[in-house]
Amino acid sequence: QLMMIFPRISAVFLSLLSVITNVNSLSSSLSSLPSSQGVMTSRAARSCRNARDGGSKRLIINIVVPLLPTVRPEDIDPWPGGLKQQFNTVEKICRGILSEIVASDSPPPGSNLKCTTQIISQDDACALLIQEAESAKEDAAAIIFPGTDQLDELIRIDKMVGEDRLLLLINPQFRRAEDFGVFKRGTAKTEIFGKYRPGFSFEELSCRGEQVKLTYDSSVGWQAFAVVDEAPMYQTTSSPPLPLYSGALQKRPTYEELEDRVKEVLPDPAWKRAMKKI
After folding, report:
1. Is the pLDDT of residue 10 over 80?
2. How far apart are CA 85 and CA 63, in angstroms?
């Protein structure tokens, strides 16, 4: 009987050990934020690739635009030139995302595959990027900084790309159908919000005076972190990020929900914590 019991105990122990290991591994991945532009680019590509392989060919990417090395702490606005100044940086990131997505479909990845940029609106810094793949059906495209004024162009490009190819919207300048106005919100609801789903997000926002990072990965879900004692101009911190939720969420949290979680995780506001250090 002992010989029969011990194998069962051993099997149960190994099973529990496996679960604990998987939980620790998941916890580790949940608590990490992109540490560099390269890491963010690779994660965005992987997330969009997973979503595409799952059947989603229309995706939205929202990313933090890394600050230029010339930005100083005393600068009030790190991007005085607005979207036009951010364009070159975002275009580089977008090219990297598209290249990594296509490279995964083309073993070995072809270095001669072209990525072309077509300006849609000079004033709005909006452009279309088309990335070639080894097979034309695997080509991918992305639109940088699409705004409400580009709705007709978005619909035209959507048809041109075709429903079987991947099309990304990078840092769109709208959040809801109402942003398009009374006469176009119905079209926007159908052609944009009815078609596109989140592909990847790494965003920054301020809640109750705290720096909050909001992320989305198609293989994980939505996650939110409070970053304490951060130097916001340089996006650096000596403290590990504090998860606002114990796990990933399937739905993007609202600002009010994030604010409530910040109050629970950090009951003392930033100014009060700073006073305690004096």
Report:
1. no
2. 16
Beta partners for residue 252, in sequence order: none
- Residue 233 scores a pLDDT above 50: no
Per-residue pLDDT of 190-200, as tens digits, reads 999 999 999 99
Helix axis angle for 37-53 and 82-103, nearest 10°, is 60
Cβ neighbour number for residue 99 with a 10 Å cutoff = 18
Nearest alpha-carbon partner for 106 in 129, 131, 142? 131
Which residues lie across from 223 on neighbouring strands? 215
Which H, E and C letters describe 64-85, residue by residue?
CCCCCCCCCCCCCCCCCCHHHH
β-pair type (221-227, 242-243)? antiparallel
Q: Which residues contact 220 (CB under 8 A, 6 or more apart)?
A: 29, 30, 248
Tokens of 47: 């997330």
Q: Where are the beta strands (DSSP E) in the chain?
A: 58-63, 115-121, 126-131, 140-144, 166-170, 197-207, 210-217, 221-227, 230-231, 236-237, 242-243
